[in-house]
Amino acid sequence: MDPVSQQQIIDAFRGATKSEIKRVTFPADFDDLDFGKLEYLGWRDRKIPRRAYVAVPTTGPDGAELVTVILTQAEKKPAAKAMCSWCRDVNITSQAVLYTVRRGGAAGRKGDTIGMLVCEDFSCAANARKLPPAFHKGTDVEMIREQNLADLRTRVNGFVAEVLSTEE
Ligand SMILES: [Zn+2]
Predict the structure, then answer these.
(1) Could you list which residues have their CB under 5 Å from ion ligand 1?
(2) In angstroms, what is the span from residue 67 Cα to ligand 1's centroid?
């Protein structure tokens, strides 16, 4: 994704209240982030338990638009090792946990949420860049990686589109 500033991320919040946005704590290493190696930026709030955020460069009918949403980690962790629904990392390098996000508009204000299993530490981009553990000679590994990244972008974009689909 293209580099974004903290202000751009703040301005891109959807479905969040002013007081929620005011309490956002950015990652300590924000200035060192390599956006070129990220398909989206996800991080956990160091000061608020179970609170996390994702900032996603979406591609809609009006072109590219950054969208930031608040995620809440479910209290219960999945009993078994779960696969992330975004990067679908079969090696389960990072544990996927259940995050919920408020739907857009009136539905969200009524408490309507969407849940999905996502890498607890939002390491999808790194996982998707990993190559398959075994591949045949002559396999175009770069093509596999490109496909993985395209799939990841598609899934995260689809998630954001679903969250915003109830906005009025
Ligand atoms: Zn993931």
Answers:
(1) 84, 86-87, 119, 124
(2) 18
